[in-house]
Amino acid sequence: MRALLLLGGLVFTAAVLGTLSRPLNMLASFWPANAVMLGMMVRSQRLGSSAVAWSVGALALVTSALLMGDAPLKALWLSAANLAGVLAGWLYFQRVPRRAALLGDQLSPLYLLFGCVVAAFAAALVAFAMGPVLFGSEPRRTFLMWFTSEFMNYMLMLPAVLCAPRWPDWTWLRSPPRVSCVSLAPAAVLVASELLAHLMGGPGALGFGVPALLWCALRYRLFTTTVLCLVVGTVKSVTLSMGMMAYTPEVMEEVASMRVALALLSLGPLAVACTQTLRNELLGRLQHAATFDALTGVLSRAAFIERSERLLARPEAFPVAVLMLDIDHFKQINDRHGHAVGDDVLRGFAERLQARLRPSDLFGRLGGEEFAMVLPGISRAEAQSVAQRLCEATRAQPFALSSGEVGPLHATVSIGIAHQGRLLPERAVDELLRRADVALYVAKRQGRDRCAMHGEETVDDPAGGAAPAAAG
């Protein structure tokens, strides 16, 4: 119900605003209602396949036309043409890969261009016969007028509707990010370019803002770029209709040419923005793959070392503890049950321990069954207590396996602890990992399933007693 109300409300509002921009005996200078309806139908598969949603959209178009003073016949005919364009566009986008239809592909601008042509052609095909009756113009002129008007409206408005963030993603409005002069520079240059175009005039003024729009496409998000293209195109269309070029039947060919130019104006920036978005997405995936271990989801070895070095370079991180963890008899698990079962144990182990750490702690996989942790701002006693709890959490519950052939497996972990109270002069990570590795060796020598503190003569025994540490 909420989606239907939103659809009806937005289409009605857009239709009223479009009617207000309509010159005498002409189509509106800017008509966003059809693009809004088509965009919502493409974004929501539930709306697009709902007869009720289409009825709500049609009712919004007819009602807005009647309220704005159109005669019943004119309101019905105009609405029928609008709906024909929306329906044709929706049928076209149903045959386009969904990611590409939502501007998530490098070829999305071309798919969008063809879709706008299809929608505009269908609307003009229904509307051209009403030219002599409603506008006093011949059908050929009506077709040209309607097609170019719809094509411009779809090209300017539809991209912004297709890639608009969903409501949960608008929470940044409550705490907007800091705006710097550097981030505002592309928008400022765009405004200056459009002011210069207005002052100089002439046919070439249409292209003054293109370099600035390309810069915006490189610096801003895709949605921001589509909104800027929409604003620039709308302002140009309205100012042209009010000043430089009157939208009247006598200059129909010039008006049609100008509308096509305005429609294609945003195609270049849109293509750049889509490519830039895909590039950023790919870089994000590569960065994630380099930062996190693909199997367990914890930090990779390189990322763990890098972040640990940055953390241990700050005095406020001390006192600090570094833990080395090794799953006991992991090779036997692999040999007996296979590597798939071993992978399940590694994943379960990492998830179980990650849930018991603080946000400030670092947890990474160094290789195989060996993991490491950096716990900043923790005392020696607290570090040993944390290690004991990690041992208990590992042995307490069996690990669930994805393979049905093998039941749940029990596993234990040995932990070596290195504690440092003061800032080390250099290469603190290497030194603390070395100490923790020595302590881990002690824990394994004394029976595994326990933790050992570097520099102490005893290790924690799971049975509750203390065992003597191995020499060296």
Describe the structure.
This protein is an alpha+beta fold and 472 residues long. It folds into two domains: 2-165 and 180-287, no CATH class; 301-468, Reverse transcriptase/Diguanylate cyclase domain (Alpha-Beta Plaits), CATH 3.30.70.270. It contains 19 helices and seven strands. A hairpin with a 5-residue loop joins strand 6 and strand 7 (466-468). Helix 4 (51-67) runs antiparallel to helix 5 and helix 12 packs antiparallel against helix 14. The chain is elongated and about 100 Å long. The model is unreliable at 457-472 (pLDDT under 50). Residues 318-456 form the GGDEF domain. One of its GO terms (molecular function) is diguanylate cyclase activity. It holds the Pfam family GGDEF.
Measured between the Cα atoms of the first and last residue, the distance is 73 Å
Number of separate domains: 2
Question: Would you tell me the structural class of the helices and strands?
Answer: alpha+beta
* Low-confidence spans: 457-472
**How much helix, percentage-wise, in residues?**
55-70%
**How large is the count of helical segments?**
19
Rg from Cα:
33 Å
What fraction of the residues are assigned to beta strands by DSSP? 5-15%
Strand order of the largest sheet: 2-3-1-4-5
What's the rounded overall pLDDT mean?
A: 86
What would you call the shape? Answer: elongated
Keywords: Membrane, Transmembrane, Transmembrane helix
GO biological process, one term: cell adhesion involved in single-species biofilm formation
Catalytic activity: 2 GTP = 3',3'-c-di-GMP + 2 diphosphate
Protein name: diguanylate cyclase
